[in-house]
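Category: protein sequence paired with discrete backbone structure
Discipline: computational structural biology
Format: plain text, a pair of labelled lines
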Amino acid sequence: MATVELRFSAQPEHVRTARLVAAAVARRAGVDEAVLDEVRLAVGEACSRAVGLHRSHGITDPVSVALTEEEKAFSIEVGDSVPGPGGDGAGSRARSVIGGVGGLDEPDPEPDGEAEDEMGLAVISGLVDDVEVRSGANGGVIRMSWPTADAVIRP
């Protein structure tokens, strides 16, 4: 069960609030202070991506953010309502970029927004060691995880 759950309309001005909440909950969960900027940036990228997908597809459902404090980790899931495989294929593209199969140097055969989508996913994968992108008929989720102080092995 999530420690904190946010749902916000797909408006860019709400992304800042999601970043601030994520940093506050991460700090409380025990994420190292040196990593909090990465948490803020990654959440901002994931939320901006979800907002952009909702707006470009005309979806009025809210963007969801679940922040979960686990025993030795802190995780964040940012969800959108854009159908993946079988829909517009956004999920399969996302998986290829995160998995290192897709490349940013490849020609962009798709409309402009999708190049931005791939760039956002590349930024997230550069900021977060433990990231997973899932997609299905009801939408997609970017799950990111960071170790907490409890997970650090001390001599």
